[in-house]
Design goal:
Helix content is 4%, strand content 43%. By secondary structure, the protein is mainly beta. It starts with a strand and ends in a 13-residue tail after the last strand. The chain is built from 2 helices and 15 strands. The longest helix has 4 residues. Strands 2, 9, 10, 12 and 13 form a 5-stranded mixed beta sheet that branches. It has a 5-stranded antiparallel beta sheet with strand order 3-11-8-14-6, with no helix packed on it. The chain is globular, with a radius of gyration of 17 Å.
Length: 199
């Protein structure tokens, strides 16, 4: 029987152990730019490439800026089930929403999930630490290198993201996957009018 956790709002402070939240609101280092017509926040994310130095075991990696177009995942009874986590051992991974299909509501409503866990003593996800955050279309995320997280999960509609990650084409150096005991995430406190489908 899967155990269950409850969705949390995504904030800069709550996500610090796992990486960065990319957003204007809540940042303290806002400066004015473009002759007073824009706000600018510098260094909103720590970009990491841990393969930058010479190493006989690691091939060098190049930055890959790509687009993910993520279809909505199924939910049942307001629950989402996660069965797998992944990590990028030598690179941060940044996601920034650029388009949300069929948006007719406030951009401040949640549209995707950010599911994370700490590394355990067995070098696998520690499910006692698993957490799930609700992100809006005005928030991006940047996972720290080697941070366990779910593949992208959008809820209710397709969302497109710009993604930045360093890759070299070596599978386990670029991305490592770990099947986990299923965990149910209760979305109801923050996601309203959820579509019904089978988990």
């Amino acid at each position: 029987m899967p155990f269950q956790i409850t969705i949390e709002p995504l904030t800069i402070e709550s996500f610090k152990p796992y990486g960065d939240v990319i957003q204007l609101e809540g940042n303290k280092n806002v400066i004015i730019a473009n002759q007073g017509t824009a706000k600018r926040v510098n260094h909103v994310a720590k970009l990491e490439n841990l393969r930058s130095g010479p190493s006989p075991a690691l091939q060098s990696a190049k930055p890959n800026m790509c687009i993910f177009s993520s279809a909505p995942r199924p939910t049942t009874g307001g629950l989402f089930q996660v069965k797998l986590l992944e990590r990028h051992p030598y690179s941060s991974q940044l996601f920034m929403p650029i388009h949300e299909q069929g948006v007719t509501t406030s951009p401040d409503l949640p549209s995707y999930l950010v599911i994370v866990a700490e590394n355990g003593s067995d070098d696998l996800p520690d499910l006692r630490t698993i957490r799930a955050f609700a992100a809006t279309s005005t928030q991006g995320i940047n996972y720290k290198a080697n941070s366990w997280h779910s593949p992208m999960v959008t809820i209710g509609r397709r969302v497109d993201f710009v993604v930045l990650v360093w890759e070299n084409g070596v599978k386990l150096q670029d991305c490592e996957e770990a099947p986990i005991t299923p965990v149910l995430i209760d979305l109801k406190p923050l996601f309203k009018n959820l579509p019904e489908s089978k988990i």
